Every structure is written in C-alpha cells, then in structure tokens.
Please model this.
Amino acid sequence: MQILSASSSKLSTKTAVALGMFDGLHLGHRAVIQPALDYAGAQGLKTAVITLENHPRELTRGAAPKLITNLDTRLALFEELGIDYALVLKFDQELMSMSAEDYLEKYLLNILNASFVSTGYDHHFGKDRSGTPKFLETWTKANSIELKVVDAVEQASSTISSSKIRELITEGKITEANAMLGYEFMIISQVLEGDRRGRELGFPTANLKLPEAMVVPLKGVYCGSAEYHGQAYKAVMNIGTRPSFSNSDEVIIEAHLLDFDQDIYDEKIKLRLNQRLRDEVKFNSAEELIKQIKADIELCTN
Model:
C-alpha cells in the first residue's frame, strides 16, 4: 500500500475512494470501504481511502477522545483489506478552514483521481462541517463520479460506533468490542528494554508502551497473540502498572509470547487482544506470581 500526503501529485490511474476518518476501522467503517473495493474490482481500478492522523476534536474542541487505532495500526488494517492508496491528512487550521468544495477538488480530483466515492451516512467534511452526503451527491453528479452513501450498521439493535467500542475497551469488555470491530483489538508498538524480571521468573516478556493518544484497555491480564515478522505467537499480556514490582502509575504492556525466544528490543510487534482473564493483582511473593502466570497460560492455551 502506498501512503499519500496533501502534497502528493495526481495519480495516473482512476480510483475508487472510501471517504472518512475510520478510527477503529470497525464493521461500520468496513461497510463504507467495501463498495469501493467492489467497484474497483469490477472496473479494474485501484482503491484509496482518506484518513486523518489526528482527531479533529483536538482542534475544534481542544480535547479529543482516545483513538481506537493510532495511525500505524490503521494503516496496517487498511493494508490487510487490500487498499492500494491511503491519503493521510493532518487536521490543522488549514484543513479546518477549507471549504467542502475545495476539499473535494484538491483531494478527490487532483490527488486521488476518483471515479467512485463511498462514504457513511453521517460523515462530514470541510469548513463548519458543510460537506454532507447531500452536498457530496450534488458534487459527484456534476463531476461524473459515482457515489454510494452507506447507512448505519447495527448489531443486536445497537448502532456500531467508535464511541461505543471505545467505551467497551476501557471497561475491559474486549470480546464485545471485537465483535463490533470485526477483528481482534490491535496494538502496534515498539518493544522496550525492561528490567528482565520476567526472564528471571522464567517468563520473559516484551514490554511496550501504549501508543500516545490511544484508548487504554482496563488494566488486567489478557489472552491474545503477538505478530513478529509475519509470524503469530500465542501471548499472555498484562496491561497495567505492575504493582508487585513498581510504584509507578505508568501503564505498561508486558507480553509473554509462547514458544518464542528471540531478542526483539527496539523492534515493532503487533499485539491482538481476544479475551480478558482477570484484574491486575499485587502478589506478595515471586512464587505466588509464578503460580498465577502458569494458570493464566493454561487458560489462554485451552
């Protein structure tokens, strides 16, 4: 997948574009992207998405909700879907002040060379959010571009939304969040060099910080997997402050990869969470902790 920016030149090939921010890339977002994939497949075109590297509310309200997917994670998910181009924009004063018409002309016409656009029923763009699906309908007709506006996607009579998924993750309801995401909640981050205490206990861990501005799952122990250089390994992860060994308030992810013994400091790995086992606990001895880790591994592998 090729990453484009606001200064990129116009593509020589026509594209089918999905328009949105796509934080979380949940089932509702995938329903918006699928028509672009289908149209591109039928017409022999390339696919493209437009996304933002930061949340607009940082600028419009001075504070933004935590992201379900930071940019690294979102781009990896786009690539998994088979997207050819991702146009990544920074929501700054210039973008916020741009008219809806200028936005479409600059990005859809003069960079992405769009012949098809899909968007969600509630997506807005341009100055004062004046770019609505109705506005887009008029503009695409005038520019001979096909348009698909996608309705809300519901699950168990509840509309799938980033805000609902964010809430579920912070409550530790990772299974329910994954059902709305359509994939296992994913974190991509760099492995830090720790104090090697896990190795001393017989359970070496990859220690990672949660990417800045990303939603923090409820502290506790999770089952999941870790992907390194395209190979997936089952993993048991503690997300929290390590109260047995530290008085810090900093949240750290400690991932123990099963059947894995490599030095991966400073490397990026991809973690996926599929189940929350229990709360984070302070243990009185190393023996108690070792016993619990063994029990956690047993639960995660059965």
